[in-house]
Design a protein that fits this description.
90 residues; alpha+beta; 3-stranded mixed beta sheet; 3 strands; elongated
Amino acid sequence: MNRRTAVYLLLFAPQNKVSDDEIYDNVRRRLANDRDVRGGALQVDVKEGVVSLRGRVEEEKHKEKAEKLTRKVKGVREVKNELTVTVQAR
């Protein structure tokens, strides 16, 4: 492959870009299936690969884990972690 072909492929070839809908579904699934985070009640928004997380978790480590799980999803460019830590009365 010559240099011109390589440049063309980098600039114009279709990329395996993941849609925001796919990212949303994968983030929701990953968070909901985690026994610590239990992300079913968390709000997830995705715009151009930037994921915003909102809602409440019980511990700081759950907030950090939610962000870490989200970052692992293919297509995520950035995570805005706006989760709040709220201790629930037992």
